[in-house]
From TrEMBL:
Organism: Hibiscus syriacus (Rose of Sharon)
Protein name: Peroxygenase
GO molecular function: calcium ion binding; monooxygenase activity
Family: Belongs to the caleosin family.
Domain of life: Eukaryota
Length: 183
């Protein structure tokens, strides 16, 4: 259980210090109230150097798509807030299974998909569950978004960048590098 709360892999047996799984999304709530509003998703994406239209589009789609599953009652809320403490309810099908249904990090699945699919392009197709059209699209979207923000100069997505995406440390790293560059 202790390890399941950290993004560990063979090279990082202790994960990223001080991080738990919900930090994947916590980068986006800027006032630290545990709720992500579309404007915060937008701002977070902009901080990750995504363009204006892309960030507006992804901000709306992510919040509308995830908000309802994280609300406490039956009625959908205005402004589509995402409640981080219930973020695990947003898990969808056709993913890599690196997050389990309780939102924990599953190192074995992380290592599995890397050893199987590194340097190939068909991971998202291979993980597809039958007739799970929404999951297919969301999964493609997540990985494309990650590729957009984190591919290296040779066009590869490094394993460390992917691990950092799971625990959110990648997002902090990208903003830190951006700030350093601007200075
Ligand atoms: C640049 C921004 C983002 C990128 C690149 C990104 C990327 C990813 C990736 C690659 C996965 C793993 C999917 C898999 O294991 O197959 C994932 C999962 C997830 N992300 Fe994000 N994400 C971003 C922003 C967000 C935001 C803003 C939220 C919500 C506030 C969010 C919520 C989730 C959730 C709930 C999952 C679990 C889905 C599952 O495993 O079924 N993400 N994301």
């Amino acid at each position: 259980m202790g390890r399941a709360m950290e993004a560990v892999d063979i090279e990082h047996p202790h994960g990223t210090e001080g991080r738990v799984l919900q930090h994947h999304a916590s980068f986006f709530y800027q006032n630290k109230d545990g709720i992500v509003y579309p404007s915060e998703t937008y701002r977070g994406l902009r901080n990750l150097s995504l363009g204006f239209f892309e960030s507006v589009f992804a901000g709306i789609v992510i919040n509308i798509g995830l908000s309802y599953s994280t609300t406490e009652g039956w009625i959908t809320e205005l402004f589509s807030p995402i409640y981080i403490k219930r973020i695990h309810k947003c898990k969808h099908g056709s993913d890599s299974s690196t997050f389990d249904t309780e939102g924990r990090f599953m190192p074995v699945n992380f290592e599995n998909f890397f050893s199987k699919y590194a340097r190939t392009w068909h991971m998202t197709q291979s993980n597809r569950n039958q007739y799970d059209f929404l999951g297919w699209i969301i999964s493609k979207g997540e990985w494309l978004l990650l590729y957009r923000i984190a591919n290296d100069s040779q066009g590869y997505l490094a394993k460390e960048a992917v691990r950092g995406c799971y625990d959110g440390s990648l997002f902090d790293y990208i903003t830190m590098m951006k700030k350093a560059k601007n200075n």
